[in-house]
Design goal:
Chains A, B: This is Molybdopterin binding domain. The structure is a homodimer of 260-residue chains. With 260 residues, chain A is α/β, with parallel strands linked by helices. Chain A is built from 9 helices and 12 strands. In chain A, α8 runs antiparallel to α9. The first copy, chain A, starts with 7 loop residues before the first strand and ends with a strand. The relative contact order of chain A is 0.14.
Chain lengths: 260, 260
């Protein structure tokens, strides 16, 4: 039996550069790994371009369907940074330069005798009613509006901002995961047995992930990771033991990874 | 003036492992980079869990809104591989083991004297009316159903499958990109001038992307990439020259990257 309620989140990645292939996103992964131990499961992610209407629509869909939403990207000082205005539009609230946000930015730039230009002031535009999120990396804050957390796009800045978020979140049951790795194991070797096991333990999510690593030119090391995820650790342990036995039965030594 | 029509694509990443943070996705980036030179712009991406209803809804939304859709993940032999059935459901067509797909799989496994079990046969389940996509890495084919291309989840297999796709696509105007890199340039140094330039060239998309690299422990190298994207190379060249001059005007040597 799972303990605690199920709490879900969505991630909205905002930026032409992710869709064009210029930038490899790392924020979905980073945010999912941050939330998992808090008992919050990311159930959906969308990547959208820098277009206000598209951002507003996606944000309104996601915030209605999940306990929390995390946006990344588009809160810098340049013309293509339109996320703060889009969040305000989605919530139907006003937006303007706010004194507390501006003070943070002025203090930050004063340290390096950098002028706070009009464009830098734009980073103090905060939707009405939002609370600020500390940015320990470059000063300009993120913000929380209802159940939506608006973060920067640069992964190292997102990492910094997440430190000011966990105390605002109410998590549910924590999903634990364990895995069995079988070098040279092919998915099809255990697929039938795995399907039977998945039916027997409907509350445990069992995934099968083949890997192909080029250890040196032309030499591929392959195998399969079998991953079980559940909130109930007793069931999780039972499933992992059964999977390990399954791998052993086809003549491969299972390598059991510790609990995440 | 742009030449040729605008052709758009969406990417649907299917898999609990991407949302849980276990797996860092690389397929969106790979597919976007494959499509860009063909004149096809990825305008949306969604990541969904291994749940049939969610996959069907997302797929039907995306295939109605874009010229092409690419799905990744969930076409292996195990119980959690439900993508083929979800695609059939989305299109309202039947699905069964198909002789040509099964022959490919039987030939493939015959090479290594591997039995084609019931679960391996599942990989020959193809939605009615689909055409197969060659998988040069592990045999089991992907498939095309209307404007939807269903690919594997492992990035190296996706790369292999893309080789059997370009001849099926009709691209439009190719978006070219060029960039100016300014070490130690901060976004705010050029934000006003960049905003003016963006208004002057509405058909050129101009993005500003700060970077922070830890070159060694505790030592951060920072700067900003200014990227322009357009289908018209004359306009693109004009914009890049203006951006380079802008960076030079604040005392930083611009580094102009060649056309992508």
């Amino acid at each position: 039996m799972a303990t605690g309620k199920r709490v879900t989140a969505a991630v909205l990645l905002i930026g032409d550069e992710v869709l064009s292939g210029r930038t490899q996103d790392r924020n979905l992964n980073q945010i999912a790994r941050f939330l998992a131990p808090l008992g919050i499961n990311v159930m959906e992610c969308r990547v959208v371009p820098d277009e206000t209407d598209v951002i507003v629509d996606a944000l309104n869909t996601l915030r209605a369907g999940h306990d929390y939403v995390f946006t990344t990207g588009g809160i810098g000082p340049t013309h293509d940074d339109i996320t703060a205005d889009a969040v305000a539009a989605a919530f139907g609230v006003g937006i303007d330069v706010r004194a507390d946000a501006l003070a943070i930015i002025e203090d930050w730039y004063a340290k390096t005798q950098t002028p706070v230009t009009e464009s830098r002031k734009r980073m103090a535009r905060i939707p009405d009613g939002a609370s600020l999120i500390v940015n320990p990396v470059t000063g300009a804050p993120g913000f929380q509006t209802g159940n939506v957390f608006t973060l920067a796009g640069v992964p190292s800045i997102v990492a910094g901002m997440l430190n000011d978020i966990d105390h605002r979140l109410e998590g549910g049951a924590v999903t634990k995961s364990r895995s069995v790795k079988g070098d040279n194991l092919r998915e099809g070797d255990v697929a039938e047995a795995l399907g039977v096991l998945a039916k027997e333990f409907p509350e445990v999510s069992i995934g099968s992930y083949p890997y192909f690593l080029e250890v040196k030119a032309g030499e591929i090391k392959r195998g399969t990771h079998l991953v079980a995820r559940a909130t109930d650790t007793d069931q999780l342990d039972q499933v992992i033991e059964r999977i390990a036995a399954m791998v052993e039965a086809v003549g491969i030594t299972p390598r059991i990874d510790p609990v995440d």
